[in-house]
């Protein structure tokens, strides 16, 4: 089966299956060979055949959890929630206090929109292993969804303590801290995530945005510049650059950045909206109205730019509209 595993690692799946099947004809009791063969079937997009191999492995070693876990993961990928829970119940008969099995069962309950069942399963996982990061993360996400931000923070903190390099834990904790208005600590958490994942775009962009929100504009600009040096047409980085320019009251530079963002991503609601707002500050009502309308047309909720467009259509004095916008911007940036 080592040759079969080698073929599988090289993605030569036909040769892998042939070799593994030949190995099983010699020794039908090799759990590892059945598991590798199942993984090859999964890679080929044949989960039903993979399931046959998982079940064969279960018969060879009824006390092994590995085929049960693999089968549950396969069923979850196929969104067969009830069957995944059923497979989990079979695994619990082998080991009742198993955090992985309980967490997978919780994921299946989430798939069924059974929030209470999912929460119960994740808490059972923590009874088995109080530091099990996947269960802590899931409970944190459930709490955040229910707007229980204090509970969410507690679970995400525990996940970070359990797994300090877990990007999801760091990122989710930072997100909750932002919602709670605790931006300086959120920055610290994202800085840790950025150091550990220097090439991960979402982390760098989020950190740059937080920098500008807390007034660390030089660091925000350095982040945007670094990203744009790698990709000059990266719309989110251009948006960040424009927002920084607005905070520095450099409207011409902001408009140029937002125009580039729109050129890079013509369907970006945020880029069109920020371009229109900037032009409104510059008293260029016709251009502002056109871009705000484009943004609103692309917005799924058709709500972005509503205040600005209503003011323009009512013929309000642009200076008064700008004063209202300035007040709104100052409040958002505090």
Would you kindly provide a written description of the structure presented here, covering whatever features stand out?
Helices cover 78% and strands 0% of the residues. The chain is elongated and about 85 Å long. The protein starts with a helix and ends with a helix. The longest helix has 16 residues, at 318-333. It has 334 residues and is mostly helical. Helix 9 (133-145) runs parallel beside helix 11 (167-179) and helix 12 (183-196) runs antiparallel to helix 13.
Brief account:
The protein is mainly α and 334 residues long. The protein is 78% helix and 0% strand.
Q: What are the main properties of this structure?
A:
334 residues; 20 helices; single chain; 78% helix; mainly alpha
Task: Give the arrangement of secondary structure elements.
Layout: H1 2-9, H2 13-26, H3 31-43, H4 47-60, H5 66-77, H6 81-92, H7 99-111, H8 115-128, H9 133-145, H10 149-162, H11 167-179, H12 183-196, H13 201-213, H14 217-230, H15 235-247, H16 251-264, H17 269-281, H18 285-298, H19 306-313, H20 318-333
Helix pairs in contact: 1-2, 2-3, 3-4, 4-5, 5-6, 5-7, 6-7, 7-8, 8-9, 9-10, 9-11, 10-11, 11-12, 12-13, 13-14, 13-15, 14-15, 15-16, 15-17, 16-17, 17-18, 18-19
């Amino acid at each position: 089966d080592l040759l079969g595993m080698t073929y599988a690692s090289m993605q030569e799946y036909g040769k892998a299956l042939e070799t593994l099947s030949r190995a099983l004809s010699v020794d039908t009791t090799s759990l590892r060979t059945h598991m590798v063969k199942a993984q090859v079937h999964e890679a080929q997009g044949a989960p039903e055949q993979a399931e046959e191999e998982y079940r064969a492995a279960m018969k060879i070693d009824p006390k092994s959890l590995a085929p049960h876990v693999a089968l549950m993961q396969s069923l979850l990928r196929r969104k067969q929630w009830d069957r995944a829970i059923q497979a989990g119940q079979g695994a619990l008969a082998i080991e009742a206090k198993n955090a992985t099995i309980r967490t997978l069962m919780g994921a299946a309950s989430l798939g069924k929109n059974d929030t209470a069942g999912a929460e119960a399963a994740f808490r059972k996982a923590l009874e088995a292993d109080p530091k099990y990061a996947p269960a802590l993360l899931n409970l944190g996400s459930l709490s955040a969804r229910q707007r229980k931000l204090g509970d969410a923070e507690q679970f995400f903190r525990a996940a970070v303590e359990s797994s300090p390099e877990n990007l999801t834990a760091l990122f989710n904790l930072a997100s909750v801290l932002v919602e709670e208005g605790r931006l300086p600590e959120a920055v610290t958490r994202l800085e840790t995530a950025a150091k550990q994942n220097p090439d991960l775009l979402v982390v760098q962009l989020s950190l740059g945005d937080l920098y500008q929100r807390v007034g660390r504009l030089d660091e925000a600009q350095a982040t945007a510049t670094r990203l744009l040096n790698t990709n000059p047409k990266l719309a989110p980085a251009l948006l960040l650059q424009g927002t920084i320019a607005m905070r520095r009251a450099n409207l011409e530079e902001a408009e140029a950045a937002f125009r580039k963002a729109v050129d890079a991503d013509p369907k970006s609601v945020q880029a069109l909206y920020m371009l229109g707002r900037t032009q409104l500050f510059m008293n260029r009502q016709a251009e502002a109205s056109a871009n705000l309308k484009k943004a609103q047309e692309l917005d799924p909720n058709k709500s972005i730019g509503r205040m600005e467009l209503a003011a323009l259509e009512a013929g309000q004095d642009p200076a008064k509209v700008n004063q209202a916008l300035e007040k709104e911007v100052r409040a958002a940036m505090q």
